[in-house]
Amino acid sequence: METHSRFLDGRIVCVIGDITDFRGSGSGATAIVNAANRSLLGGGGVDGAIHRAAGSSLLEECQALRRSTLPDGLQTGAAVMTGAGHLPVAHVIHTVGPVWAGGDAGEPELLRSAYAESLRIAAAADLVELAFPAVSTGVFGYPPPLAAAKAAAAIGTHLAANGRPESVYLVFFQRQDADTFAQSCGLTPLE
Ligand code: ADP
Question: What is the pTM of this model?
Answer without folding.
Answer: 0.98
